[in-house]
Amino acid sequence: MSTPPDTSRAEASVPDVVSVPDIVAPGLAVLFCGINPSLTSGATGWHFAHPTNRFWRALYEAGLTPRLLRPAEQRDLVTYRLGVTNLVRRPTGRASEVTVEELRAGAERLRWLVEEYEPRWVAVLGVTAYRLAFGVRTARIGRQRDQLGGARLWVLPNPSGLNAHYTPGDLAVEFARLGEAAGLV
Question: Uracil-DNA glycosylase-like domain location, by residue (predicted)?
Answer without folding.
Answer: 22-167
